[in-house]
Amino acid sequence: MIFKTLVSQLLSRPATNRFPTKYMPRSVTKFLARVQAGQDEIHPPVPVPPKFRGKLGYDREKCIGCQLCIRVCPAKVIEFLAETKKIRIHVARCTFCAQCVDACPVNALSITPEFLLADTDRNSPHLIVQ
Amino acid sequence: MDPKNPEKDRQYGGLGEVFAVPIGPIHPALKEPIRLTFHVRGERIVGVEIRTGFAHRGIEFMGMRQGRNLIQVLYLAERICGICSISHPIAFTQAVERAAGIEVPPRAQYIRVIISELERIHSHLLWAGVAAHELGFDTLLHLTWRVREKVLDILEELTGNRINYAIPIFGGVRRDITPEQYPKVWEMIRYYRGLLEQLLDAFLRDPTVEARTRGVGILEPKEAEELCAVGPTARASGLKKDVRQDRPYLAYPDFEVKAITPEDYGLTPMGDVFDKIVVRLLEVGQSLEIIEKALENMPEGEITSFPKIPALLAHLKKAEGEGLGWHEAPRGEVIHYVRLVSGEESPLVWKVKAPTYSNLLSWYPMFEDQEVADIPIIAACIDPCICCMDRVYLVRNGREETWTKEELLRLSWEKTRRMRRWRA
Amino acid sequence: MEGLGVFGQAVLVVFLGGVVGLFYRGLDRKIAARMQARVGPPLRQPFLDLGKLLVKETVIPKTAVAWLFSAAPFLALLASFTALLYLPLGPFGPVLEGHGDAILVLYLLAVPALAMALGGFASGSPLGVVGAQRELVMLMSYEFPLAVVLVAVAWRLSTFGLAPAFSLGTMAAHPLWASLGPLGVIGLAVLFVVLLVVTPAELAKIPFDIPEAETEIAGGLFAEYSGTYLALFYLADAVRTLVMAGLVVAIFVPYGIAGALGLSGAAAAAVDFFFWLFKVFFVMAAAVTTVRVGMARLKVDQIAQGFWLWGTAVALGGLLLLVLDKVVMG
Asked: Chain C contacts of A23, Cβ < 8 Å?
């Protein structure tokens, strides 16, 4: 019974998606540098469905500064910029609940499917949305 | 069994020294931190001490005292646990809706039921894999977790994330299930129906699994009743206890859910680990039926009675009252109690009772007279979710005691009498 | 092979034994992974693991008996390598032919298990003690069927006048299958199966890996070992796998194919050696890899009962069939 499954699994392709690469590279930073230079490639991750809750998107023009998003955010992710009456989102703290997206009365906030957000600096440009 | 006097060993002769084997808080058998100290003689367990509190994060305190409004507390409640991640929001939203007098449209109730049942399938498949891993059978772990990917993909499709679905909101749900998504859900139901027989076969008819789980960790029905066990732990001992059946809520009255016991598989309930596997795998089948029926009979209408968040926040701020919310989580009954005061955004009182909290004490009779080799599978068989459970850790005069249902009832009556005297 | 002295041959065999043992461990992990629908580690992973362990810090617990704790891994590795020197290697006879026989190999196979148990007891941790107790119970259980198999084959060889009967070289040179009647062939097949079942028990692999049960006692015997000592145990385990599989091949399927292919001289030796490596790999894949992914872990009392009652009964049954076969054949 189990041996039939074992043999059939042995003879078929593994279920693992080989993201980012099949085996662990000797040095992750050197591997990433090679990928940047175009000498190596990263196997893509499993595609996400539409309406996947990833990084927040912000349309500055539409924002009216009502601060509703700040009131509902459970993780104190959003910072209000009083001079311009706009907001700054700190993605490093975000729990991706998208409650702020629901709360915004003018649809200035949206969710994007981006989720590869690992970084070494919480204030790096791609972890701040403003 | 008296955990403080392990030498007082009624059944065994005194040959051999008793020594203490600590399991946890960090141990490959445990998925979450808890310390079990076993007093063993050779391979026989003669006593066990349970020490909890390692995963206590002060979530109730954060919800009550740090100035969060109820919508923010909802997301705190969601993160009490990762596996039962919709059980806590569902119980919490029901509690607040009862306290604040908020009606929920029928379509929202159906969607909540569908996501809850999907979570039950996911949780039981995860547990089956973990149980197999504790037995040393890693192939079944990889098989069940591979199979579980399908339900996680459906959850991702419907809710936007594989865990922490963020679906319930006060007054309804946040997302609708559109007709384009129905075929994907039906395909998942067909896939799992086809696999269920294979899974039952792999777990229940494998001789090594049976050798390791039959007659191991027995919980008698009387003990389960006295120790207030809930969920599959109680049902495997033959008790027909299921919150969906006893106190129907959400849309469950329409489905007439019956508690599943090993008798539904043709076995006499023994209350051992084997019976628990039977109950959980059969519940996967039951959940598939409920989802199918829910999709067929889904009522039309809105998905929430408060589509505008400012209106919801204003209503919640004015609300006064108390409410109790309950849900049959994959591990048993979870209860949230909420007391709201008008003018305050945070709840005055928020108490969470997780199912593992009720099931924890059933470890004592289950471990009695078993072998060290059985420790991981018995620890895993109640499906412990320690992060749900660690809400409070009491020490009275430095002693630890075990109290049964009668004791707890008596204590709560006394407290009520005391409170009435203060008010009078 | 004859060109080098005994010492030179021993060094060569020990070195190759280590390399091939680790390579086979890599193959075992890869095949086990593919059976579980995973990608698995690259084939060179055991070499990387060994290298990593050798550069890590070796910690000796304060409550441990330091000299015994440190001596156990060396004992295990030395015994494993020595057992390798008594193993027939396909077309080449054992390096130490004439200086010891199958009984010595039996003891040499038991020494690493004892060394691991001693290390577990000496490690000063309750998990190590539990693991060591289990290892000793298991050792006592499977030794009897293992001994019966060796004694049965040696006895039957001796009845044909082949001497020295207990030498593995003799067993490899004279496979018994063709010389026995039908009863004897069945008896020999039974003994073959018993030895295949004892193989994962000897190597402490699932379903018999209770001494180092990962989910129960966090590595048991090996819980307190780290760095160089753990590397030595790791290597010893790889070499023991090779020795056990080689033992099965030597006693029951020592056939070569060079004769059938009409080769001779160096070419025959090379072809037969690779065929031997392939046979050893196949025995390992069947008795260790497939079994360890297809079953759950058994408890120590189930293992002890299983081997003492069923294992011994079946092995003695095989021996009885061989005796009957001799009586029938006259």
From this structure: 41-42
Residues in chain A with CB shorter than 8 Å from the CB of C39 are: 14, 16, 18, 22
* Chain-chain contact of B139 with C293 (C-beta, under 8 angstroms): yes
Indicate which CATH number applies to the domain containing B149: 1.10.645.10
Q: What is the token pair recorded at B288?
A: 């598939």
Q: What is the C-alpha separation between B413 and B420, in angstroms, rounded?
A: 11
Residue type, B354: A
CA distance B78 to B65: 18
Interchain contact, C37 vs B142, CB within 8 Å: yes
Mutation for testing the C interface, residue in B40, B148, B208, B381 having most C CBs under 10 Å: B208
If interface means Cβ-Cβ distance under 8 Å, which residues of chain B face chain A? 68-69, 71-76, 78-79, 139-140, 143, 146, 149, 153, 156-157, 160-161, 164, 166, 169, 174-175, 201-202, 205-206, 308-310, 313
| Total of domains in chain C | 1
pLDDT at C102: 84
* B74/A74 Cβ within 8 A: yes
Contact yes or no for B68 and A74 at CB 8 A = yes
**How far lies C252's CA from each of A72, B382, C124, C170, in Å?**
74, 48, 42, 12
Query: What are the angstrom distances between the C-alpha of B62 and each of A65, B65, B299, B347, B349?
Result: 27, 6, 37, 11, 11
CA-closest candidate to residue C148, choices C191, C91, C210: C191
Give every residue of chain C whose pLDDT is below 70, as ranges. Answer: 1-3, 213-218
Token couple for B65: 């005292």
- Output the CA–CA distances (angstroms, integers) from residue B61 to B66, B76, B88, B357, in the order listed: 7, 11, 16, 18
Residue of B nearest to A17 (CA): B146
Beta carbons within 8 Å of B53's beta carbon, 6+ residues apart: B390, B393
> Quick one: closest CA in A to B139, which residue?
A6
The confidence score (pLDDT) of residue C72 equals 94
Instruction: Give the Å distances, CA to CA, from B9 to B14, B41, B363.
Output: 8, 10, 18
Report residues of chain A scoring pLDDT below 50.
none
Nearest residue in C to A19, CA atom: C39
CATH code reported for the domain at A48-130: 3.30.70.3270
Range of the structural domain that residue B311 is part of = 59-352
Residues of chain B scoring pLDDT < 50: 1-2, 5-6, 8-13, 393
Q: What is the dihedral of CA B71, B76, B79, B85, to 10 degrees?
A: -40
Closest partner residue to A15 among C31, C37, C40, by Cβ?
C37
- Among the partner-chain residues A10, A12, A18, the one whose CB lies closest to the CB of C39 is A18
Return the pLDDT at C215: 59
Measured in whole angstroms, the distance separating CA C140 from the mean position of its chain's CA atoms is 16
Strand partners, A58: A109
Sheet strands (E) in A59-104: 78-81, 86-90
Q: Does a structural domain hold residue B210?
A: yes
| Same structural domain, B145 and B285 | yes
Looking at the structure, tell me whether residues B347 and B408 fall in a common domain: no
pLDDT in the model for residue B315: 92
Residue C270 lies in a domain: yes
Chain-chain contact of B373 with C209 (C-beta, under 8 angstroms): no
Do C41 and A15 lie within an 8 Å CB cutoff?
A: no
Looking at chain C, list the stretches that DSSP marks H as alpha helix, in order from N- to C-terminal side: 6-35, 45-55, 66-85, 102-122, 126-159, 168-173, 182-202, 214-217, 227-252, 258-261, 265-284, 291-294, 300-305, 312-329
Domain limits at C90? 6-329
The domain limits of chain A are 1-47, 48-130
Distance of CA B270 to the CA centre of its chain: 21
Do the domain assignments include residue B42? yes
Tell me, yes or no, whether B178 and B309 share the same domain.
yes
> Does residue B137 contact residue C295 with C-beta atoms inside 8 Å?
yes
Please tell me the pTM assigned to this model.
Answer: 0.88
Residues linked to residue B334 through DSSP beta bridges, in sequence order: B327
